[in-house]
Structures are given as C-alpha cells and as structure tokens.
# Entry
Amino acid sequence: MEFNAKLQQLRTNAGLTQEQLAEKLFVSRVTVSKWESGRGYPNIESLKLIAKVFSVLVDELLSGDELITIAENQTREASRNICSLVFGVLDFMSALLLVLPFFGNQKGEHVEFVALPALNISYDILLVSYIAVITTTIFGVAELAMQNLKSPFWLRLKIGISSCLSVFSVLLFIMTRQPYASSFLLCLLVLKGILLIKKE
# Structure
C-alpha cells in the first residue's frame, strides 16, 4: 500500500478529519489533502509527527522507494535554499562598492583609488553607476527578506533578475574603465554561475 492510501486509512480509522489531522501536524488541510491524493510527500519532521499521532513507526508508513523520494526532495529543497541565500548575499555585497576604494580617480599623473561616492566622473555615468549598485543591493536585501517564499515563479524570476543586474554592472564598469570594480563584480557573477551549475 502506498503512503497516501496508508495515511488516509490511518486517519479514517482514528476518526479524524483532514482538518483535525492538519492541526495535529501543524500544517494546512490542503497539505494533508495533497499527501492523501498522492501529489506529494511530507518532510521528515512531518513524517515523525504522523508516526507519533498514529503510534506507528516511520518505516510502516513508507516503502523504500518513497523514503528515497522524500530524501531526494529534501536534498533538492536544501540546495535551492542555500543557492537562494547565497544569491542574496552576493547581490548585497555590491554595497561594498559604496565604501571600498575600487574606483580610480585621475589626479594629474597619479591615480587615486576611492569608493563610488568620491569618484570624479561625468554626472550621467555616476548616476547610472549609483542606480546599478543601489538596485543590486536593494534586490539582495529583498532576496534575503523573502528567503522563505517557495514559489517556483519567484525562484526563477529572482535568479534571472539577479544575473541580469550583475551582467549589467560588470559591463557598465568595464565600459567606464574601472577594472577593480568590474573584476570584483565579475567574481560575484562567476560565483553565481558556479552555484547554478552545481544546483543542476
């Protein structure tokens, strides 16, 4: 018997509705319904609670294949969470351009290295630079703030926007001949690429 049928049978035998079981497991009724219809599996913590509620062993609830599926799902989810967290941190690190001397100011024959606010370049280029750095930083904060949002749409959108902001910033600072700033941002972009490759 598959997990979904076992769960439904145990719940019915115990005289519980899906809503009552959901309350005992600290999940929504929709989640219990999803498990019982075979459209998903609980995580390990929920499995332990189910076993406790019905006084059975976890092994009695699942077949070997189902246990492997749950473990694989949890591993994938943990990997996505780590990737999401690191993307947010990397985007937030763009704020370092506002305080660290990554930019070169020409002073006669010498070059003085300064942070972005002290850079002497045309107003238009400086404005675009500020917009790129601040937008990336704010997006990094948003990524970290919405860490628990599991929507697949948001995850795809987040990776796309983050990557585009990074590519734009790298190209901007290459075109404005700021090698240290562009190298720093390129390193962050490469780290994102490595994370995406590892995630697949």
Summary: The beta strands are 103-107, 110-114.
